[in-house]
Amino acid sequence: MQQSDPNQDRRRQRRPFLVSYGIVILIMLLLNAFLFPSILKSQIHEVDYGTFLKMLEENRLKIVQLEDEQIYFIDNEDDVYQTNVIPQDYAIVERLDKAGVSFGRVYRQQGILEYLLTNWILPFLPLILLATWFSRRVTKQMMGEGGMNAMMFGGKSGAKEYVVDDKTGIHFSDVAGQEEAKESLKEIVEFLHDPKKYEEIGAKMPKGALLVGPPGTGKTLLARAVAGEAEVPFFSIAGSEFVEMFVGMGASKVRDLFKQAGEKAPCIVFIDEIDTIGKKRDSGSGIGGNDEREQTLNQLLTEMDGFDATKGVVILAATNRPETLDPALLRPGRFDRRVPVELPDLAGREAILKLHGRKVKLDSGCDFNVVARMTPGASGAELANIVNEAALGAVRHGRSVVTQPDLQEAVDTILAGAQKKNAILSEKEKCIVAYHEVGHALVAALQHHSAPVQKITIVPRTSGALGFTMQVEDGDHALLSKEELLDKIATFTGGRAAEELVFGSVTTGASNDIEQATKLARAMVTRYGMSEDFDMVALETVNGAYLGGDSSLACSETTAAAVDAKVVELVKAQHAKAYALLSENRRKLDEISKYLYERETITGQEFMEILDRKDA
Ligand code: ADP
Ligand code: MG
Ligand code: ZN
Prior knowledge:
The chain has helices spanning 6-35, 49-57, 92-99, 112-143, 148-152, 179-193, 195-201, 219-230, 239-243, 249-264, 275-278, 291-306, 346-357, 368-374, 380-396, 404-421, 427-446, 482-503, 511-526, 557-584, 586-599, 604-612; strands at 45-47, 61-66, 71-75, 80-83, 102-105, 160-162, 208-212, 234-238, 267-272, 313-319, 337-340, 453-457, 468-471, 540-542, 551-553, 601-603.
């Protein structure tokens, strides 16, 4: 993609601005000179009318020229005079005649050209110039970098079209790691390759997919890779481009964009940073505050509903703030597919470093694995930056290849800034998170009624979680037994239990676990009739649960207190069970935590292998 430096753009735009103002000022000066010739003829003596009369009486005048508003006269010494004000002196002609000077009257007769120039062209010239310059600037802006392309397509939407061929196209191979994201985008590629195949069978593709993840994780890159893989045109526009123009422009840009895309199908429309137009509509905008943005969003929704998905237009969008999006955007038939693009784990980081390392000359002693280990929590963009920074450092040091110390130095430079701004974990924190997650996983695995562990990761998530343990039920469970629920609660407490066991203190990392365990325990008591004390008595009424309503206790205050006590008892018992399980299996806890600490992400299979391994 041709990306130009926005500063340079602005500078380029400012230049004609200065020129046109220069011209305007010049014209003003000329105009002045024209209307007040005295500026040009500075040797003229200005005198008052009285002096003129006096000189006339003293016979010192040679030539007098009467004009509309001035009298010019020349005396016997050939000096030129001028008087400005003429009183209504009707006797002047008589006097001049009597004095015997040669005199004449000049009416400032304007030629037609002069008339047009002074009355019509000159006053409006600055305006005309300004208008021309402005309109040129606007068209330039609208054509964007796409230049010719945009012009060919009407140049209104500002959507640049990148016609992709094998030479310039980005492919999935240009995106390192992100296997899960690539996997879910592959279907879209298939569809774009051959929309007919899907149409014939009656399958409807999702109209849109939303790439969600922290900045710099490769969302834009992935979207372009989809276009490259499918070999279809790629329309890309940033959400902010819709709103920076005049009122009403955003909506018409959207309309235009979709019209173009319809003509070019199969193709991809990519809306980057969709949160700028897709924010929740009612979120406290002042009176008429964000009308323009709302109009644009409404138009986008209308267009997405309106077009025929079988034609092969796929809309991709990216955001790093999915929680701010208007729910309407996420409804079925719109961006109903979510593709998480998370920060890379150790293997992912190494792959990204290697990919970008190919573009620079490397010393044979470079070890990207070491660099990847030093950079937990770094994004793809930061890693790409590290490689580049290392290359710059090598040049600074007068080397012709990048060495390991260069990489080391680059890590320090790039991450020093990043460490402050986002949650890159310290070694100690990473260690705690590893134990916490393995605590969950171990407790789950050591019980008989828990779903198998699918994946454990300590790479921070978009959701803000520092790590998580994924369990996948084998098959659908419509009914959960009391034992299964109890095991679930134990699993929720496993993270905290591991922290207690290993570090002897606790952290804030368990807040979500606590919430979930409490909810479950409460539901067991009040809704599922799973406590001896209350038997099968409904203690809770659910108000319109389908409308997202709340549930409330339908019992006396004393019962409510008893329910609370029961909930505490339930959770406490499971917490104790989890703690006991972990301390019995302390060696496995240590072993797996260490393994996870190093890898950052491990599969359920790896987990089970270590667990089942006989201790030496
Ligand atoms: P996002 O859109 O998620 O903010 P970008 O797609 O703009 O991130 O990524 C910025 C740059 O970082 C890319 O151009 C690329 O050089 C690098 N990058 C990010 N993720 C990856 C990745 N998974 N593989 C290779 N390069 C990556
Ligand atoms: Mg981006
Ligand atoms: Zn937890």
